[in-house]
Amino acid sequence: MPALLSLDGVCKTHRRGRHANVVLDRVSFHVGVGEFAAIFGRRGAGKTTLLRIAAGLDAPDAGRVTLDGRDLLATGRRRRLDGLPDGIGWLVRSGPLTRSMPMLDFVAMPLLERVPHREARRRAGAALERATAGALVDARWPELSDAERVLVALARATVRRPALLLADDPTAGLGTREREIVLGLLREATDENEMSALITVPALPDVLRAHRVMSLSGGELMEPTRQRTGDHLVVAADRRESV
Amino acid sequence: MSVKQAVLGLVIERPGYGYELVQRFEERLGGWRASKTAVYPALLRLHASGAVQRRADSSAHRNVTWYEATDQGRSEFRAWLRTAPELMPMRDEMYVKIAFATVDDLAFLIEQTRQQEQLCLDRIDRLRGASPESDQLANPDVDWRAIGQAWLLRTEVAHLATTIEALQDARDLMKAAICRERSAG
């Protein structure tokens, strides 16, 4: 599976006064083309920090992040109004500021930067259909259930057909059935090779649909043995010596 | 609780021979860390107690011994199924090690928590994808066996998740203890 997203030796420390908290310590992994990967970790484990760095929204203190072989933070890389580089979609679970906005227009918004209104609405309709939320085109955000909001958010995050979808705890607050639907949709989208996905989750039973599960704690990322590369093993050995 | 009841359950579902039962044991109860080699001794014990009977089968040029449940076996299994089970004790080796470790041991134990976490992740890696489709489970015609199987898988993963969290928690605490020790020294 060729790598789409690669993180290599990524470090990040949060500083507050004299206090330093190492959130990511030489984290290396990749997400393959068409792969659905999940990162499991407790609250405060650094999952969101890792995801923001993977999205190119924050810079690491050290290390390299590449999307499709190109440095994510390279100057001159084209960015959207929402700060995301081309090729990346970010699932955001908040609604429009205008509460009366129909969901079709809400989903179409990220396209308006570059696509005419009529075409943006057509693509938004298709994205809602793909997210099994075709019936919600005329609905307003306050009318939606939590599960419906996630489906709309998924449509909005994928409306530009990104190569990589990132989602920070996309199933929070959903019931078992709704979680299965959302994760099933992500798996389906990646299996059909339309995109790759990297999500974070606080509970493992939710990630049975993922192709790969990694864990994050104390700045260390661990992944299943079959995924580890020689580099990872070297990093792990370094870390052992320094405890 | 022993492997005996699980093997009896398999034989009641349908008769089988040794190797086939070992395979079915793994397929149906893969998450259970009981040894596969425990299936044969369990069959012998069940036979000795009269819960299963042997039937030699030399058809298809194969000489295998089939095991099938007796009426006694079926009624014993029903009785066991309806008896309240005991709560599983926490008897993981790691708990005992952490409980009795001194600060000098912590660096070794930190590494052991990483190895254990790796084993959990590898186990999850093998379980992934074995879960029935959610649509399938929502189907009113789906039989209880498929639902039970899905529950077993979820429970196993939940258990692994709890173990990973406990290991990460222990690692954080041990790292902090080492730091305290170093700054005090």
Regions with little confidence, pLDDT below 50 for 5+ residues of chain A? 229-243
The amount of helix of chain B comes to 55-70%
What portion of the residues of chain A fall into strands of 2 or more residues? 25-35%
Note the total helix count of chain B.
Answer: 8
Q: What's the multimeric state?
A: heterodimer
The CATH architecture of the largest domain in chain A can be named as 3-Layer(aba) Sandwich
Largest sheet of chain B: 3 strands, antiparallel
Mean pLDDT over all positions of chain A: 86
What is the topology, as strand order, of the major beta sheet of chain A? Answer: 6-7-8-3-9-10
Number of domains of chain B: 2
Largest interface: A-B, 30 and 32 residues
SSE topology string of chain B = HEHHEEHHHHH
C-alpha geometry of chain A: globular
Order of helices and strands of chain A: EEEHEEEHHHEHEEEH
Helix content of chain A: 25-40%
Radius of gyration of chain B: 22 Å
